[in-house]
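Q: How would the structure tokens look for this protein?
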Amino acid sequence: MDNGRQLLGKEGERLAEVYLKKKGYKLVERNYRCAAGELDLIVLDRRVVVFVEVKTRTGHGFGTPFEAVEFRKQQKMIQAAQYFLAERRLQQRDARFDVVGISWPGREPVVEHIENAFELS
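A: Here is the predicted structure in token form.
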């Protein structure tokens, strides 16, 4: 990934974190990495563990941010989430997968949040 895209991605993750905190979510971890993959943000929505994928786009030439979270990406997130829950002994907790899309159609970013964007399959 080139440096411009990395910076854009990091800024998107920062904006998503600020947005989620304003909604009352509590940050557990950012950029969690394990053998199964990476999770951008892990937050708590009350007692529910929420695994958040953040996608940032400057345009829709390659699709919307949400279209980028395709089946293969979902499966990798599920595996990483299962690893996290086992590692922290949280398997009994309710969990879900959210996607936060950040778009820059103009000067100001637009933040969209889909709760429970996909389920274990």
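Residues 6 and 12 are 10 Å apart (CA to CA).

The radius of gyration is 14 Å.

Upvote if useful.
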